[in-house]
Amino acid sequence: MTITRERKQELIGSVQRGENDTGAEVQIALLTSRINSLTEHLRGHKKDFAGRRGLLMMVGRRRSLLDYLKRVSPERYLDVIQRLEIRK
Question: Which 3-state string (H, E, C) describes the chain?
Answer without folding.
Answer: CCCCHHHHHHHHHHHCCCCCCCCHHHHHHHHHHHHHHHHHHHHHCCCCHHHHHHHHHHHHHHHHHHHHHHHHCHHHHHHHHHHHCCCC
